[in-house]
Structures
1.
Amino acid sequence: MQHEERATETKPVERIVRRWTTCDFCQAEIREDAYEVREGVLSLRLGDAYPDSGHTTEQRVDICESCWEAKLLPWLASLGIVPQTHRVDW
Ligand SMILES: [Zn+2]
């Protein structure tokens, strides 16, 4: 006769409890509150996009608001570039 004895194992479960972004210029944490958006991203996406599939790669630089104002905008201005501003409401 075969018998079974069952036991319950408790395995530790690793989960992400906090996620944050740091500025690639000054390494400061880019802080956001629950309803506040403060995100600076400069990115280049390359790839192929078809109706049912595709792939892309993205190069991304995260920038805090201070570095955006003090470092990125002056550099862009020196090249004659003025970023476009778009308002998004939902
Ligand atoms: Zn910064």
Note: Residues 23, 25-26, 28, 64, 66-67 surround zinc ion (CB under 6 Å).
2.
Amino acid sequence: MSVQTSIVAGAPNDSRAMTETDAPPKTPAYAPMLAAYHRAHAAELRAIIATVPLFPSDRVLDLACGDGAHMRWLRERLDDGQVVGVDISEGYLRFAREQIEVADADASAGLCAGAVERLPLGDDSVDLAWCAHSLYSLPDPMVALSELRRVVRPGGHVAVLEQDTLHRFMLPWPAALEIRIHQAQLEALRARPNGPGKYFAGRRLGKLLTDAGLSTCSVRSFCCARAAPLDADERCYLDGLLHDLRQKAGPFLAAADRVAFEALADPASDEYLPRRPDFHATFLDVLAIARVEDERAANRSADGTPPIGRGR
Ligand SMILES: C[S@@+](CC[C@H](N)C(=O)[O-])C[C@H]1O[C@@H](n2cnc3c(N)ncnc32)[C@H](O)[C@@H]1O
């Protein structure tokens, strides 16, 4: 696969030659869990992508493309269109490039190093900007949405897929314990430098997009489930989710709650939830699709006031 950069404006494209002394750039610690999630939930994620407005010749940006899984699924919907993935992580870009080469040697897909604060794409350069499960990872979701708005042509779309930290999954916890786990999660997030706001993007995704100056076309929720017996990828993903929850919420639980929680969330425990024969988990995603309006046309129809910029 050649790195396709025709919709990328003057971007450094992570094609830095490796020397013998260079260590390969690392992927984040959560990369194996996320890859397992992509394999285990590929059918559902493809079905979500199938609802996004796309034409076969469209130019598409996948912001914070990570391992490139969404790029491959977006690419499946195109013919002579292009997908460009932008991510700040050199390790992830390298990994994504390997995955895309294996899956689709002929893909018109490009990978590009870039930070969301200033995307390496020109104004109005893509028909669709896609951003999946990343707003909470980005320093400022509003900056990200504003940049997505800038690079999408008037009449094009911004589509954001998100979860909500408190409702990412429903597990068969005792209900009273679950409420205290949520309280502990909230306290853990409050202790973070930017506060908990961006971790709850899922529940107010439409408003986030309209606050960024986009016209929200639709907000849809998608739910899926997994039940015992879990396959290796489903189990890896759940192990990762529970590990993360233990790290974050565990220290904020009262001692007795922590014992009860650990019994259900520690893989070393005989009561570990995902090993139960009657285990059932429900997962929730929210997709918001917004249209980028042609401000020049909108302003022309007003009372003679001059066109306004995109407010970057
Ligand atoms: C949770 S991962 C999601 C990746 C991918 N969208 C997916 O669904 O698998 C978040 C991604 O955001 C990227 N990221 C974090 N901060 C960024 C920034 N300032 N600019 C661009 N990408 C960033 C990370 O490198 C990572 O790939």
Note: Residues 1-5, 10-20, 305-312 have pLDDT under 50 and may be disordered.
3.
Amino acid sequence: MTFRPFLSGLFVLAIGSLVTAQEMGFEEYEPQSTLIVPEHPVTRAKFPFIDAHNHQWRQRMSTENVDQVVRDMDDLNMAVMVNLSGGSGEELQEVLAKSKARYPDRFAVFANPSYDGIDEPDYPERTAAQFEADVKAGAQGLKIFKNLGMYVFDPLGRVRVDDPRLDPLWAKAGELGVPVLIHVGDPAQFWLPHDRFNERWLELKERPRRKRDGDPSFDQLIKEQVNVYRKHPQTTFIIAHFMWLANDLDRLATYLDELPNTVVEMGAIIYDPGRQPRHARKFFEKYQDRILMGKDTWAPEEYATYFRVLETEDEYFPYYRKRHAFWRLYGLGLSDEILKKVYYGNAQRIIPGIDASLFPAN
Ligand SMILES: [Zn+2]
């Protein structure tokens, strides 16, 4: 105790104008855990896996970049990457030529629709026909970005997720037997007041444009997407980011129970299962046929956190992005049987054209 003034004096000297411990704010606070418990870091998945939620942009698809992506996939044991940023028409063909044509088994590419001219009378049929052409060209699914429901407007206002002009597109996916991966909305905390009680306070400070007010509400966006899933029971929907309900798994379960044509993928939400390992493990056990591995942002070193949450029973280990989660994580310790479904079995069942020989025979 007696040398504390001496140490804090050194601290001030060492960091110059930065704050002292007495004044430090949340952003500087990085406590180093003193907990000693068994640790089982996992840098390579136990089974080959399909990343159902990834983005590779065609502008960055040089031969060298694509080769490097495949080398990184090999290191992670990622057998197949689903690239959701395929675009449509000529763009899509460029993405396919630069990635899938060179590594046919390692990439699945999803197409994206255009909302241009949505108020034109031929838009619904034209867009469905374009998607059919995209699937013929090699797309293995459709990806809807979150602009639908939030940032797509026609002359009359916001285009709702359940806008009937998109019905022929959803129906077409069902008819062709390819899934629709759909991302609607944002984490619910973005609608809450940006105050000291908000779990995403730091994110809203670093990214103030993510703050959402009023219309549409979080619940309104849930309602609109559920209308689509109900109306198109023949179409399989992969709901991105656990529907932003990974912090309320019982509510998510009510939608999965009602809507057998839906599954969820876990892109960018691993910090939520990882803070409720017992409840989340029960969810994964009950819905083991409805959950897909996915990550979203392509940062190979971050996958280790996903593997550790899913595979181990480690305790109180760090997450990698403080603005998502300032808390530490716990492993779910899923069984091999469930891991195989989440890592590849479920995606393989839903996405056509995946090479079965990449995965264990049973
Ligand atoms: Zn994404």
Note: The chain has eleven helices and ten strands.
4.
Amino acid sequence: MDLFDKITKNWGPLGKWSRMGHGYFFFPKLEGKISNKMTFKGEEMLVWSTNNYLGLADHPEVRKADADAAAEYGMASPMGSRMMSGNTDLHEQLDSELSDFVGKEKTILLNYGYQGMVSAIDCLVDRHDVIVYDSESHACIVDGVRLHQGKRFVFPHNNIEKLENQLKRAKVITDETKGGILVITEGVFGMAGDLSKLKEITALKSKYNFRLFVDDAHGFGTMGKTGAGTGEHCGVQDLIDIYFGTFAKAMASIGAFISSEADIIGFLRYNSRSQIYAKSLPLPLVVGALKRLELLRTKPELKESLWKITNALQSGFKKEGFDLGDTESCVTPVYISGALNEASNLLVDLRQNHKIFCSIVVYPVVPKDTIMLRVIPTAIHTLENVEYTVAAFKTVKKNLDAGQYAKQEMGVGVTADKV
Ligand SMILES: Cc1ncc(COP(=O)(O)O)c(C=O)c1O
């Protein structure tokens, strides 16, 4: 069989829908300034699908800092990886300010969170070590674990009893191999918005002698009194051994970081392949991240606005009887029962008739016949936006319950773009 023939015949679980939904359900183009209102297919939409939690994407100070830094340094500088020729005082300043912000000794910047995470997991463990990780971990954790040459055990999502069982199995192995145990989880689970049980997990540390690595992509900047993340929120930040945050969400940029003890970060600097073998983060992104971090520190009102909108949205949905699962973060999943064609038609109705743009998550990410509408509030939404959205959701839910969407073919009224 020719490799390309096989690929051409099967574009995979999402790709198989591309002819029906390219440019609409997948790869939609949201145009205009990143805000609560953006344009989709020529129509203004109320947007609930960007992780611009604190509204920094179009904040005037941020835009100015980004533009000034791009004018001063260009996008090329510095050239080379940090190890070879791409290190600067500003990169080191950002390392250091991030360490202070999350309360760790040292920090290593990463060009992309996904790649950095994969690479960090790869280099922290060898074949004598055992990884134990949550079953609902982000792809960057799963893919990092796939590179691991030793044993790995997964525990059912947030199930502490099962985690302990896996730790017992891990300990038997590491007693034999003289290796260590690394537990990996997310802080805020990005899909469903629930939190890792960090208090319970860290309580097991003394018994099983493991190190804890937390991916806090959605918690950094949004959770905790100072915005230092889910560890701060749960009162266990000091017990997280390795803390990961990305600039792609609350910071509204690109780049990421890992913070830990000085020795561990030193080790990562000299061994993490995603950073050694890739060009250093361009200076405008570094300067832009310094400005964003300054705003995180000095403008607590941004996080307050985010939570004001989050609380209004979540209590509005709950009052109307919507199931929001176990979210304790800003990520707001609205669970509805329905088949795939009903899910897609409900989304089309929301977009075309109510001018609301949110994301939809279907099987296999959620169980069969469950629809998750993933609604992401930000500091720049208004209470009117919330009220309007809850009312619109109530209307589409009524239509769903009346069987209106089941009667229609999947994606009726959608004209797909050419892939
Ligand atoms: C939980 C989680 N981890 C890691 C990442 C990857 O971050 P980045 O966008 O910086 O690659 C994401 C972003 O999608 C995420 O949601």
Note: Residues 112-114, 117, 138, 140, 186, 190, 215, 217, 246, 248, 256 surround pyridoxal-5'-phosphate (CB under 6 Å).
